[in-house]
Predict the structure.
Amino acid sequence: MLLTNRLKKYIIIVLLFLEAVMDIRVVGESIFDIESDCILYFVDNAFTNKDTLELVEQCGNRILNTFSKISSIPTGDLKIVPAFDLKADYIILSVIPKSIENDEDRHFLKEIFYKIMENFEKYEFNTLAVDIKRLNDSYGKKHCDIFKECLRNLDMDIVIFLCK
């Protein structure tokens, strides 16, 4: 049975009143063009990789002052910084392991993703944008699969944009 768009919207509204509903939307837009409370961006410890340069190009040079104040981020940690010239309000910078070799690495990565979502909830963000394609290209399919698994296990009332 095909549902009309109006009926789909009504069902979503009813579900919102019943329990927390995570709304995951796969979009073709760039992570930098999404209007959201924050974007999740993975960087290396010292902000030296090419992905960090792309972030600087998009945010403007003011983010360099933030990087110099932070200096570095240990693997497994995160920092929440202003998004400056982006449409988002904040950027969650996180450092994750480059490879997943065993169950310990997998568990560690899950802990990082859950820590990110705990902070997301702590700061009462409602929308998050994640460049799932860049996560896959820079880190690999295992990282994406673990991230998606963590999302499925969360019970939060948020909208997540997975950018391709």
